[in-house]
Amino acid sequence: MTARSHSSETTGRIPGENRGGTAADRLPRPPALALPAQTWREIAHLLGNLPVALIGFIYVCIWLLPSVGLSITVVGLPLVALGLGGARLFGAFERRRARVLLRVHVDEPSRLPHRENGGFFPWLWTSLKDPVAWRSTLYAVVRLPWGVATFAVVAVGLFVLWPVLPWIARGLTNVDRAMVRGLLSPSDELERRIAQLESDRGTVVDTAAADLRRIERDLHDGAQARLVALAMDLGLAKEKLLEDPDAAARMVDEAHGEVKLALQELRDLARGIHPAILTDRGLGPALSSVATRCTVPVAVSVELAARPAPAIEGITYFTVSELLQNISKHSAAKSASVELWRTKDRLLIQVRDDGRGGATTAGGSGLAGLAERLGSVGGQFVVDSPVGGPTAITAELPWRDRAPEPPAHRQ
Question: In angstroms, rounded to a whole number, what is the distance separating the alpha carbons of residues 200 and 379?
Fold first, then answer.
């Protein structure tokens, strides 16, 4: 008897206790009023639909109807464009609300292409044809009846349909998710690409215009001026040919020297447009030739099994040429290197130097212009140049195969 009492005390069991669990296990569980956090977020989103939808609908009515009525006047279309900008902001707010409460991650649409000094009418036309803003406007209109319905259902469900409220909330918010994805997300990658190409087109046009102005200036100030002086000298030599043959001979000799200089200037100008060595022999010899004009020793490594398309080849050549010019002028480097290689469908360029560093694409520098040019053809431009050096500039271009040469025409 004593042994049994001692055993009961040491084991800590209460007489008559169910051996299947502790006393705490037999206590009644609290009522299941605590819903999952995601369900509460969905309920909050559904309850917020009504006030947000009211704000959006009122905004569209106040902005769109008067603007359309005034579109026959001077101020109507600008008001429509400004209102579409506000609709874009409303769509951005709704994407953010869906991201926080519904865990719907929708990509932000591309920004409207911005062109410096583009003027009023290009901005107006771009704004009026913005598909993102028009879909956001449609979203604001159709949300009002849906917001009233979801608010009413959830408000009743909180007091009457509590056991099934999580399923109701999930079903209603799935419709919300579909609306956000369908009306507030970018249409597809094509829309992004079109917007990017429209923006890049301005860069390409500006770059081409700047190149044409440079060529015109070089011709006017260089070869053209020299050829005009040459023509005048030859005219004078012709007049002196009979009366002073020796003076005429000296003038012809000087004119011969001017012709040589003019030819050299034209060759330099042609090299600046498209060097013959690049056309004939490709990037390896062309970049090696450029490297010889750099003020520091440059190691060139080109690992390409084939030549890219002429446009990509030209952009690569002038990119490396300008980077080496920057090294000569600004880096105070002792050595530099140029490497080219292909990785799948990308052509990679890396230019390094051991100079002072501090290079940046900010502030309208020449590197910023290079970055814009590469971006206009789908390339990338990365500068790693801490103060004190070294500097490593990496550029990527899309690889495009060279078109086959047409067969030679036989006579």
Answer: 11
